[in-house]
Amino acid sequence: MKLLSNERFIVGVLFSWVAGFVDAASFLGLNGLFTSHITGNLVIAATEIIGVGGQALWVRLAVIPVFMFAVALTTVLARRHQLKLSHLISMETLVLLLFTITAIILAPAHHKSANNLPLFLTGSLGVFSMGIQNALMRESLGHIAPTTAMTNNLTQFTMDLALITGLHGTLRSRVSGQDLDACRTRLIKFGSALLGFGVGAIFGGVLTAKFGLFSLCLPLALMIFLSLRSELIFRHTDMNPGLK
Q1: Which of 55, 73, 120, 200 has the smallest count of CB within 10 Å of its CB?
Q2: Residue-wise DSSP of 52-89
């Protein structure tokens, strides 16, 4: 499925917004569990090993293989079975729907279960949905900046910003106009992902603090829209082979 350049930009921003929202909502509503910034769970798990923080050590460690399985499954479906982008987006939307329903019903943050099973079940669904997004971005939308790994995006954005704003004298004469144009293009590419994720995280934090995990209905609605939109684009390109 081919997306026009403007659509690529918009899709990247919206996916980043969803990832930021879900990460902030899960952190607040799932006892500090990250669903997008998955390696952040290792840091919190390390503090829990020494007795600082909550009591969800095994959950934080257990969701990591869940994330890996989601990435592996999406990769296999995309490559071996040639699952289309629209189908991958629909798959993420379905898992996000299950995550939202489970989060609302189980309300794991208020559950007093000593074994944290409600937290694991709910968190695993959130992690699984973000694992799908990570994989589909690499498999089908590699031209768009990563929508969940903001550290790399921030690094590249800062490097390009430094090159553009700090070039002067001898150094400027060594950089071609083509390289400067590439820097500006990357600034937009990675900056838009950072902006989308940041704004999404703010929305997720504010709305979850006010409405609890019911707030997940908002990114879910957006993913449903993206799923329907991608299916329409795919059907349009099927009917117009020259757009592929």
Answers
A1: 55
A2: -S-S-HHHHHHHHHHHHHHHHHHHHHHHTS---HHHHH
